[in-house]
Model the fold of this input.
Amino acid sequence: MKNLREEYNQISDNFWELIDWQGEQGKLYQAHYNKTYESGVLDTKTKRLMAMGAAIVMGCKGCILGQTQKAIDAGATLNEIMETCSVMLSLGGTMAGSKISIVMELLKEIGMIDADKN
Done:
């Protein structure tokens, strides 16, 4: 069985292959995507936490994995990730809660949460 990071890498690779296949349209999308997450009024970390929250509510596993990792890469702490998840649980109820389990499993996999603690 693949770990979540391997699963995300496969999803991401396939997604970006599609974007590349689209030629000029794909290049425009990629430029928009990259520009979206640059620091502006909101910093990159905040934007990635927002995107992680939206992915949780929308239920997109690849987006949840990617945005969680990108939030961490942008400096998000365990507490910031968990608080974002709490807001999404408040907003999305048990359906969001089931998707938060993906975040929790990734955090265990990368060692941000002690998997043996429970």
Summary: The chain has a mean pLDDT of 95.
